[in-house]
Amino acid sequence: MTVEPARSARPLSASAPRATADRTGGTTGAPATGPRQPPGGRAAWIAWSIGASVYVLAVIHRTSLGVAGLDAADRFGIGASALSTFSILQVLVYAAMQIPVGVLVDRFGPRKVLLLGVLLLSTGQLAFAFSDAFGPALASRAVLGCGDAMTFISVLRIAARWFPAAKNPLVAQLTGLAGMSGNLVTTVVLAQALHSEGWTPTFTAIALLGIAVFALVALFLRESPEGPAPVAPADGRPRPAVGRQVRDAWQEPGTRLGLWIHFTTQFPGNAFGLLWGLPYLVQAQGMTRTEAGGLLTLLVLANMSFGFLFGRLLSRTSRARMPIVLTTIGVTSLLWAVTLAWPEGHPPLWLLVVIILVMGSNGPASLVGLDYARARNPVERLGTASGIVNMGGFIGTMITLFGIGVLLDVLTPAGADGYSASAFRWAFCWQYVPMAVGTVMILRLRRRLSAAA
What would the pLDDT profile of 346-356 be if each residue is shown by its tens digit? Predict the structure, then answer.
C-alpha cells in the first residue's frame, strides 16, 4: 500500500520509529529496525473478530435511541430539544472520553479497556430500560456513552498489533463495516421488538447481551502476538507524561487534519441515523414506521457497502484519501440542498432514497481521518492520536443534533401535534454551518500538510 509522505514541519519525537520508504516516496509506517512486522493471518483475524464483536455491541447500544425516539418522547413526556439531549449527552461523553481512552489503551492495552467498556455499556442500558423519568434516563445514556467510547480505538489498536501496516486502512474500514451490522440489528430487530415486546423487555435484552461478549473477550482475546504488554517507546526510553503524549499527537499536522476530516464527513449520516431520521420520515414525509425503518436499514446497508469499497481503494493507494473526503462532502451537501429546496418540503421517494444512499458514505469517509493520523504518529501514541481524531465526528454530530432540536422547537407552535415538513426543512439547514466550518479547516490544513511534506 502506498501512503502519503510522513514528514512534518518538525521532526517526530525521539521515541518515534523510523519509517521505511515505499515506491512513491511515502511510508509504510513500519519500523526499519526493532520488532518484526505483525504477522497477520488467521490468528490476527480471530483476535480482530473478538474485538470487533464489542464494537458491534456498542453500536447496537449507541443507535438504539434512533428507532426509539418517538417512544422515548411519549414515555418521558418531552419535546424535541429534550429528546435531542439524550443523544447529545451520549455523544458529548463519547467525544470527551476519546483522549482519555486513547491514553488508557496506550498505557494498559486494549483488552482491559474493552472489558471495562462492556461493563459500562450493559450497566447504562439496563438502567435505561427501567428508567421512567427523564433525569435517570439521561444519566444512564451518559454511562452508556462512556462505555461506547472505549470500543473503537481499542479495536484499532488490536488491528495495529496483529496486522501488517499495509492492511490497517482496510481493517479500519472493516471495523466500521462490522459496527454497521450492529446498526442493522437496531433498525431491523430492535424496532420490531419495541413494537411487540415493549420498552423494558427490549432494552433489558440488549443489556444482557453484554454477558456473552464480556466472557468472549475475557477468555479468548489475545491483544497481540507477543502477549498483553502495552506498547513501549521503540528505543526503550521512558514513556512520556500524559500531557506530553497528548501534545505530541496534537502537534502532528496529520492528526489535526484527521480530526477535521472526521468532523466534517461523519455528522450528516450520524445525526440522521442516531435520532432525527425516523421522526423526519414519519412526521414530515408521512411514512409509516415500517417504511421509515426500511429506509434507515438502507442507510446501514449503504454504509457497509461504502466501507468495503473505500477500504479496497485505500489499501491500493493513499492518493484516494482526499478525493474520497472531498467528494463525500460535496455530494452530500448538494443532495441535501436539492432535498430541502423541494417544493413544500416533500421530496419524492426516489430522492429520499438517493440522499440516504449518499449518507451511507459519510461514516466510511470519516475513517480516512484515522489513516492520516496513523501515518504520522509512532506506534506508542497511536491510541492517543486516534482518540483525538475520533472526537471530531461526534463533536459535529452533537452540534448538529442540538441545533436541529432547538430549531424544531422554535419553528413549531406550542401545542402542535408533531413537527411539520416546513419545520424539518428549515431545521435541517443547520447542517450547513458545521459543514462549512469543517470544509474550510480541511482545505487549510491540507495546504499546510502539503507545504510541510
Answer: 999 999 999 99
From the list 429, 432, 380, the residue with the least C-alpha distance to 408 is 429
Q: Which residues, 6 or more positions from 36, have their beta carbon under 8 angstroms from its beta carbon?
A: none
Residue 348 CB neighbour total at 10 angstroms: 10
Report phi then psi at 28, rounded to 5: -90, -15
Among the residues of 131-190, which ranges form H helices?
134-148, 152-162, 168-185
Pick the closest to residue 309 from 442, 176, 181 (CA basis): 176
φ, ψ (nearest 5 deg) of residue 451: -70, -30
Range of lowest pLDDT (126-140, 164-178, 388-402): 164-178
User: What pTM was estimated for this model as a whole?
Assistant: 0.75
The residue-averaged pLDDT of 148-158 equals: 92
Contacts of 414 (CB under 8 A, 6+ apart): none
Torsional class of 3: left (φ above 0), alpha (ψ -120 to 50), beta (otherwise): beta
pLDDT band at 234; cut points 50, 70, 90: low
The Cα angle at residue 9 between residues 7 and 10, in degrees rounded to 5 = 90
Reading the block at residue 286, the C-alpha cell is 408521512
Distance, in Å, from the CA atom of 114 to the CA atom of 124, rounded to the nearest integer, reads 15
For position 39, what pLDDT does the model report?
67
C-alpha cell at 129: 430500560
Report the Cα–Cα distance between both ends of the chain, in Å, rounded: 19
CA nearest to 421, candidates 342, 359, 338, 332: 342
